[in-house]
Structure formats: structure tokens, C-alpha cells
Amino acid sequence: MIAYYFKLALLSLRRNLLLTALMIAAIGLGIGAAMTTITVNYLMSANPIPHKSDQLFYVQVDSWDPNQPYTEPNEPPDQVTWTEATNLTAAKQAKRQSAIATSFAVIEPERAEQKPFIASIRLAYSDFFPMFDVPFLYGSGWQESADQDLRRVVVLSKKMNDEIFGGEDSVGRNLIMAGTSFQVVGVLDNWELKPKFFDVTTGAFDEMEDVYVPFLLKQAMELPSSGNNNCWKPYEEGGFSAYLSSECINYQMWVELDSDAAKADYQSFLHSYVEEQKRLGRFPREQNNRLSDVMQWMENQEVVAEDARMMMYMALMFLVVCLLNTVALLLAKFIGRTPEIALRRAVGASKRTLFLQHIIESAMLGVAGGILGLAIAWLGLQGVSGLYGEDTKGLAELDLTMAALAVVLAIVSTVLAGIYPNWRTCSVAPAGQLKTQ
Amino acid sequence: MSELGPIFRALLRNKVGALLLALQIAVTMTIMVNAIHMIENRSSLMARPSGLDEANQFYLSSTGYAQDFNEQLVVEEDLRLIRQLPGIVDATQINAIPLSNGGWSMGLSVEPGEEARGSGIAVYFVDDNGINTLDVELIAGRNFSAAEIGYREANDTQWPQNIIITEAAAKELFPDLNLNETVGKTVYINNDEPMTIIGIIDQLQAPWVGWSAVERVMLVPQRTLFGSSRYFIRTEPGQRDAMIKATEQLLLDRDVGRLIRNVRTMEETRADSYRGHQALQTILWVIVTVLTIITALGIVGMVTFSVNRRRKQIGTRRALGATRWQIIRHFLVENALVTSCGLILGVGSSIALNIWLVDLFSLPRVGWHYLPIAMAVLLVVGQLAVLGPARRAAAISPALATRSA
Fold this sequence. Notes:
The complex is a heterodimer of chains A (437) and B (405).
Chain A: H1 2-15, H2 17-44, E1 56-60, E2 80-81, H3 82-91, E3 96-108, E4 117-124, H4 128-131, E5 136-139, H5 144-149, E6 153-156, H6 158-165, E7 174-177, E8 180-188, E9 211-214, H7 217-221, H8 239-244, E10 249-256, H9 260-279, E11 290-293, H10 294-300, H11 306-336, H12 338-346, H13 351-388, H14 400-426, H15 430-436
Parallel strand pairs in A: 4-9, 6-8
Antiparallel strand pairs in A: 1-10, 1-11, 2-10, 3-4, 3-7, 3-10, 5-8, 6-9, 7-8
Helix pairs in contact in A: 1-13, 2-11, 2-13, 2-14, 11-14, 12-15, 13-14
Chain B: H1 4-12, H2 15-46, E1 57-64, H3 71-84, E2 88-94, E3 105-109, E4 119-126, H4 130-134, E5 138-141, E6 150-153, E7 162-166, H5 167-173, H6 179-182, E8 186-189, E9 193-201, E10 217-225, E11 228-235, H7 240-253, E12 258-265, H8 266-273, H9 275-309, H10 311-319, H11 324-361, H12 370-394
Parallel strand pairs in B: 4-10, 6-10, 7-9
Antiparallel strand pairs in B: 1-11, 1-12, 2-11, 3-4, 3-8, 5-9, 7-10, 8-9
């Protein structure tokens, strides 16, 4: 029977090809626009480290200006000072902890044909690698002792290892960086985080760094700062060490805490730490410490761009217009078919069968619209990548979940759109219609 | 307009259909008004002039890595050689590039002391060729002299005596003085370090295009010795691309142990900075256009159905003496009625959506003039969409009335 309904539905759709095409196009465009923007939002708000995002906490303490908050109404600064970065990591009050920061340096490859180039550096403590589940291709992160001993050790990204060492296992080899010889201890496997949650201060979708070196080398080698460097208080003369001991914030602080009790303990540790600093004449503002887990931090930093959300709302309204359009067209079409329906009812078709038959017809429209919508979403995402360029790398790709969602959304919305017109036409009284024939 | 009654009654026979169309038009109008409002908002941001001669400017970074790299000597010699190239108007060292989203800002106040209220201002370190290279106009006071240009090490905290600021910054610091009176005034940086305003330039944007104080800039007469220097270069009109090659070649040929990188034009920088705005505008235009087309096609489809259903009635009206124009008019008026209802609804929902967007995204209020424009556009689109099927309706032969179905 179902097969027969399919045939009938197909016949009916073919009877007025232009109209069918119009409805499919409307659904396709609506679904396409909605899926394009939903995909971008979905990828932007993805959890980059799902299995432990609720155990990793971003640390904020309010070391800012007594006269005005870092951000209204009373938000603590989004980074910490060198003093806090080094003290909090050295305190070892969490399961794992690492202050991190960015820098850059010139690398002079040993192969003569390769020119020197500038590499971006992630400064980190040894805990960084196990804390963020960093994948290694060769070797591993450095030993904890290397942090304090200021060992010149480096972990390379896969891309860097390909460029400098042609992709071989380079563990144990040396590398000239910032005029100093470093020993390679590890090479990462592919590691792309979207969003790059551990540091969103200069953009949540920035590229990953080229090399990783021990944090304290910044002081030992006077490595330059990159990223955002904000100061509320002018610092004393005295060169690099004066700068490091100033109230300038340029460092991100992460801790791993695996239970609520550990989190509460860390909170009280922060409280007493700040009290102690207050006694030293720092921290002129009231206590305002914060621990945010990964997803809270992403929300606080508004990782999903406003524009992307705005576009999604617009596209969803666009889908509403397309569906209203479909309802109206289906209604007009089904009403035009009342005489036929009346006849079929008169010869014995039940309301239910007729309803089913027409629902199948709308569902077929939905499937076609969904497939068209997928194609349009794909085109739309190509367009979005084209328009935004590098910024959207990895944020404008359809995955299977999204593709399935597109088709389901199309079918459900078209079937819903078909319910009222169906109900209207199937409830005609056969006698009245037949009389006028 | 005696037909209005019958048209209205005919409409009531398919209330839901009319309601759906009205709703569709209301939502279309809502999207249209708010999308065009956003587009206008973004394009007015993009239309702000930077104060530069963007078509003829480019910049590059020179980063030393050799142990014996002497930045001070290299920069001075580089700039001297670049300025000698035929086709180059001028060149300067600069710490940050306007519109590039990376730079340095400080707070200036008119009173010394920690409690004094500071105004944020972007800092460009330039030399005495800065004004000519940037192509900004000095409208009061004087330029830096060559003797005034000092050097700044990475961790220096002292500031030089003299600065030049933009008109916008002058107005912010000394709102009650005219520009000539502002020249010679003292302002304070780092709470209590005094600096004297020696000149005022007409306009120059800060590196951050989204900053509320984007027009507030100060020029500081120092060369930075930070290990990596930026050269900002202005060429004769039309010579830019040739000069980029020539300059790069010139610098590469000087073997002093440094890298040349980030060679970019101001036009690329502007496009990058405003890429998001540009993209949003394009996407919204596509949405508005496609939306209007879908709504129009929907109307065509619905009127076609309605004509097909009423063939006999139309034939009858024709047989009873209605002219073709009267038939066409019936459909035009019908559509106008429904569309108007939708548009009235649309005014309300457009404003409601705007209020919500203002709340959520701190967008400015929509200008009221968008409402009548959107209404007129949608009314015209609706009428044009009806015209095709209505003309086919008018072509129905009066003889149809005499045939039975």
C-alpha cells in the first residue's frame, strides 16, 4: 500500500513540476542557509577537550587598578602577571598546573639551504603536556626538573619537525633558536584545537604554536612577549627584570582539579595567596578570584562570535519564511485537489489513508529539499570560507552529524508544514464537493 | 473602489492562505529591515577614512638574528637607501601599522598624578619623515626636527619631551581650546611624566578598528630598538607594486644578518581588518535578495492556484461584462490587501527584533526611514509577482462560463 502512496505522491508532484520545483527550492534554500550558519556556530562552540573539560580550570585573580575594574562591572583581568604565573605554578596546590604564554624567536636551521625564520613559541611548564593530553609522535614533554633547571629543551610541532628535520625522529638533535642551542625532546603529532581553548586572548581560532619551551626560559633568555600585554601601573626602570616584576599581565594560568573538594581547596588557597600578596602591598582591589572550567571560560570569553550568532538568527528566520511559503503553497495545491479527494472518499478511502498519502507527499518534498539544502549548505560554507579567509579554517566544514541534521530538519519541517493543509483537505465532506461537479 | 467588498469576501474564503502570506511578508520585512540596518551600520564603519594614502603605501618587518646585528646602524642605512629609490616618496620606521589590529596604547591626562583621569591614545613611534610618509596633514604647530629623533630600547619607560597628536585627541584632551591654543600644552603620561604637544595632524587611525577611540593617536619621535623593526613606505602613485619588489631586493642584497618578512600593502591590511564586516554584509545581502525572490515566487505560485480554482468565476465575470483590466485589478487589489496586513504586522515585528538585537549585540537602533522603504519595496514586489498569473487570468475566455466543468 505504502508503495502505491509513493507512486501517487510522485504523480501528484510531477503534475505540477514548476510548483514542486519551487517548493523544493524554497525548502532547500531555507535549510541550506540555516545549516550553513548552524554549522559555523556548532563548530565554534565545540568542546575542544570533552573528556576533561570540567577538570581544567582557568585561574583569574584581581591584581588590577584600585580605581577601576579591568572590565566593567567588576571582572578580574583575563591574564595574570609574571609574579602570579611563577608563584602559583611553583606552589603546586593542584593536581597539575602550568602558567603559559607566547613568545617568538628566530630559528636558524642547520641545513644551509634553509633560511632562518621566525617561529612562534609557547612557553609552558612540564605539566602542560599531560594536562592537555598533548599527542606525541616522537619522544615526550620535558621532565619536571627541566622547568627549574632552565634546561634548553624544546618540543616541536609536527609541522616544524617536517620543515626542519624533514619529518624524521629528531629527538636528541639540536636546534639553534634565539642564538642558543636547544635539544629536541619531543615532536607532537597533529594537534589542532578548535577553539584553541588554552589561550584565547588573541583569538580563539588562531594557529597552534610552532615550538614549546620551558616557561622560565623567558626570564633567563629575556624572550620577547607576544599576545596581549596590559599594564595598569607604570613600571620602574631596571630593564627586563623590572618588567617581569611589574603589574603587567601577559600570562595564562591553568590548573587541573579532579574533584569539587579539590576545587574548593584551590579556591581557599587562592584566597590565602592573595591575602599574603596584599600584606606585601600588592592587590589593591577586593578579593575577586575565579576558577572557570573550559566551557565556562569559552563562554566568558565569548568564543562564539557575535556575528556568527546574529547570522544564525537571521538564517533561522529565513527558514521560517521558506516554511510559511511551503505551507501556503501546499495548502493552495491541496485545496485545488478537493474534488479528487472527495471522490476518493466517496468510493471508500478513509481519512487516515488519505492523510498518510499526503504526508508521504510532503515528506518526499522534504527529502528532496533536504538534499538540495545539503548541497546549498556546502556551497554556503565554501562561500563563508571564501569571505572570511583563514579565520574560518576548520570552522566551515560539514560533518556527518550536521549533514544528518540537515536532512532530518528538512523532513520534519516539511511534514509539519504539510499537516495543516492535509488536515484541511482530508476533512472535506464528500457529498458537498461531489454535488457541484 | 466598489469592488473592495467582493474582493475582501473572496479573500475570506481562504483565510488561512491569506494569513500565511501575510505572515510570510511580515517576517520577510523583519529580516529585510534589520539586515539592511546591519549592512548600513557596517558599511559606515568601513567608510571612515584612515587618514593615510592607502593605495600607495606598504610596509615590511626587518628582524635581526645575527650576533653582530646592529639595529641602529642597519635601520638608518636601510631608510636612507629606501628613500633614494626612484619611485619612493618617503619612508619611516614605525612600531605599529594603522588598521592592523596590533599596536601600543597609553593613557594621557591633562593633570599629573595617579587619580587624574586618563584618555586612551594609540602610540606610533616615527621619525621626522613620519608625517610625509603617512601622508597626514599638519594643521597646527610643527613637525619633529631630525635632531629630536631619539632611540628607544625595549624596556625603556621614559618618554621624550615632544609629541604630535591628532585633532581628535586634541579635542578629547582640551575640548575648550582651539587647535592653535592646544599647541604648546603639557600632558602627562605614566601619571606624572610631562610631554608637550608641538603639533596637531588632521587625521590618523589607531591600529584597532573596533576601538571607540580609533581617531586618537600620538606620534612620538623615537626609533625603536626592539630587535625587529617595521618600515612604512609611501610610493609615487601607481608605483607601489614595482617598489615593493625593488625595496625587498635592496634589503635582501644588504647582507646584515636579518630577515625580511610580512611585506604587506595598506590595501591588504584594510581588507583583512574589515574582512568580517565585509563578509557579514555580503551574506546579509544574499539572504535579503534570496528571501525577496522566494517570497515573490511564493506569491506567483499561490496566485496561479487561486486563478486555476476560479477559472469558472472569472469566465462568468468576463461574460457579464468585466474587462480584462478589471480581472487583473481584482488580483492586484487582493494581493495589496494581504500584503498591507503583513506589512503592518511587519512594522511591529521589525521594531521588536531590533530591540532584541540592540539588547543582545549592542547594535544601534534602527532608523525609522527603513520601515517605509521596506514596505514600498515589498508592496511593489508583491504587485509585480501577481501581474503574471493575473494576466493569464484575464486571458480566460468569457465562453468558459457557458461550459460545464
